[in-house]
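Exercise: predict the fold of this chain.
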Amino acid sequence: MMRSFHRADVRDSVPRVRCPTLVLHSRGDFIIPFEWGRTVAAQIPGARLVPLDSRNNFVLDTEPAWQQLVGEITEFVALPGSSEANVLSLDELTPREREVLDIVAQGLDNYAIAARLGISEKTVRNHVSVIFSKLETTSRAQAVALARDAGLGRRHGE
């Protein structure tokens, strides 16, 4: 496991992340220094770093930090209102908006969606704004969670 930690190098990929990001890192992590977590969070626009009071790389469910970890993740992925009401609001989307939401839920950014659909990035931005409004979501992460719950965003074979 230690060899894997030291071989994994995502430094070139981290600055390209363009989605809501929550970085959870143990302050006393003996495997990966806390400063590395701070560096990762600083390189992702809008990322939020949450320091966990633990010495473990993987927080155990017997530690006080476990409740903090679960709470932060739950808050990060929470959808406003009931999920049933939000899933029903998918019916309000046009076929094109559903197509865009499906691709958003696959993890593509606006630039990649525009290239795939042969439309401008501004048009994609407009579609995404309308989708957020119709679904009553305030972030891409919320829209993705809702879409995935509705069965969208799955690539072939998933």
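Check your answer against the key: Residues 127 and 133 are 10 Å apart (CA to CA).
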